């Protein structure tokens, strides 16, 4: 009597598993198949030729460009965010919460909506390059970075800072020895989201970088679809796996801190 629903549930789960697994199976089978044709089939040969192509020439340079833009944006976002969020957390500035939420609401605008002023500001400043991309993405990240870091700093007991101050610690020592270590989970969350956001960014690098040698992998992946009317499926799938790998790797590197950070993320008024 209970076998009916169980069988239906099993069939439904199996169907969902097939749907979920099929794209990944296609991706990996074609990536490791030197004779890939783009079909979902068991490869007649296995090799790393496609991955060798995906890390050489322009593709290898694009990987380095992506790492530079993503790591640079994440690091700069954290540094600027800490410098601005700590005073907002500790100083009783009138209207600070309204200021923060106004920034967040403005950030709800799509990136394309602020692209023109960003472009002309970068052009006037001579920053139509990778450094300009890093600065522009940092500016766009700043509202959420400020909000998250301020909330994490709010959870650090101010009594610890007062005790350290009485013992003769300077402000820099209080921040580096007490506040930042106790907020490392929040810093890890901010760094990870800034990294993945910059890693996946397509429009700003395409418009700001302007030359092929400065393009990141997101632009390279777009170009890999049908250059000169032909698609090399082996190269495309290997390139896609390499494109996804750093974000997954960063997550596992920061996993311990991020699990705590996700649990501690809260939005206070």
From TrEMBL:
Superkingdom as given in the UniProt entry: Bacteria
Main location: membrane
GO CC entries: plasma membrane
GO BP of this protein: transmembrane transport
Membrane topology: Multi-pass membrane protein
Stored PROSITE patterns: ABC_TM1 (PS50928)
Location relative to the cell: Cell membrane
Keywords: Cell membrane, Membrane, Transmembrane, Transmembrane helix, Transport
Span of domain ABC transmembrane type-1: 63-254
Protein known as: Carbohydrate ABC transporter permease
Organism: Candidatus Devosia phytovorans
Organism lineage string: Bacteria, Pseudomonadati, Pseudomonadota, Alphaproteobacteria, Hyphomicrobiales
């Amino acid at each position: 009597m209970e076998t009916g629903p169980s069988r239906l549930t099993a069939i439904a789960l199996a169907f969902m598993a097939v749907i979920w697994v099929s794209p990944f199976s296609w991706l990996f089978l074609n990536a490791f198949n030197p004779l890939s044709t783009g079909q979902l089939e068991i490869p007649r040969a296995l090799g790393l030729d496609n991955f060798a192509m995906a890390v050489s020439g322009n593709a290898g340079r694009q990987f380095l460009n992506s790492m530079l833009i993503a790591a640079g944006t994440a690091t700069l976002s954290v540094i600027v965010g800490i410098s601005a969020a700590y005073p907002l957390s500790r100083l009783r500035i009138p209207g600070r919460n309204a200021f923060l939420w106004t920034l967040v609401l403005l950030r709800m605008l799509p990136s394309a909506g602020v692209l023109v002023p960003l472009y002309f500001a970068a052009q006037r400043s001579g920053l139509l390059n990778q450094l300009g991309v890093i600065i522009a993405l940092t500016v766009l990240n700043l509202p959420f970075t400020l909000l998250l870091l301020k909330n994490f700093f709010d959870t650090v007991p101010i009594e610890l800072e007062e005790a350290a101050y009485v013992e003769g610690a300077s402000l820099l020592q209080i921040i580096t020895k007490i506040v930042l270590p106790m907020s490392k989970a929040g810093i890890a969350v901010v760094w990870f989201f800034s990294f993945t956001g910059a890693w996946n960014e397509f429009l700003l690098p395409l418009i700001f970088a302007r030359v092929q040698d400065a393009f990141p992998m997101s632009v390279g992946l777009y170009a890999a679809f049908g250059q000169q009317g032909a698609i090399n499926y082996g190269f495309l799938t290997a390139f896609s796996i390499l494109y996804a790998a750093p974000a997954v790797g960063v997550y596992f590197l920061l996993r311990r801190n991020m699990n705590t950070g996700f649990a501690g993320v809260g939005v206070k008024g």
